[in-house]
What does this fold into?
Amino acid sequence: MRNQPIPNQQAVHATTLAIVRMKTIEAFRTRGVVVHREDATTLAADSGAHFPLENLFARCAGVSRTAWDNIIGGHVDVMIEMMREANPHFITGLSDDEFYSRLRERVIAPSALERMDAYDYSVPLLDVPGAPRRVLNLSSPNRAVTLADCHLVGRDIAAAWAAGRRNTAAMQFEEVQILSRNGIDIEVLSGDSIYLASKVADMTTLISTHLGECLYGVLFIVPNAYEFACFRPRDADEALAAAALLGELASVFTRDTPSPLSPAVYFWRDGEYCDVSLGPTGIFASTLTELRACAA
It folds into this structure.
């Protein structure tokens, strides 16, 4: 038989629910949104929007009551933002200035797009099957919306791409680590923003801003939205060993992450990308030849 709360526990639980629910209704009211109790754990607005409260109850139950107002206020702000952005006319109704200021260029796995034909404006990072795709996100403090073709009607698409790239370039990595094995040093740059790995769409800026000189290009992985790992080749044998090591890291870093991106190993040089997961090809193969010639 499943354990049941003892009467006193039930009373405390019911009191907590009632107080949190009341405070949440009031927080909505002070922000200009009228909601009412739908059931014990759900609020509803006249617009038809529903706001489940189970997660909020759980967060409040685990902390002191002195922290409830801040938790509830932040939760309500997110709910109101989501309600506004759920309106099909919200994005198209933004002014150009606000629209472009909130754009971010993002690189995502193709599987993250619900229907590919709804994102005809998107482009692959490189021309191989299953390659990550470049898209535009409309970003806000608590949410990111991947824009579809319908959201860009009437906008200057070239200006949108430029704004998204500029805004993503401004995001900063928060941590740099060096992972070493058998004399191979892999640089791992990471942080909390979902746009950090997307900096690979503008590799020239990524290199000049974060890496420094990359005379013979960059081997890299983007296993999830938050991490970018790379190796700057200077020797052909080291480059091959680094590609293998990056492949192992990509396999690990794509697991148990909320934003997996790609398990592949890529190479970039002089504006050209190639997938080297299955061995040297394209610009990477020619770079290895050049490195061997330099060492001879």
Q: What stands out?
A: The mean pLDDT is 90. The two ends are 77 Å apart (CA to CA). The chain is about 40% helix and 20% strand.
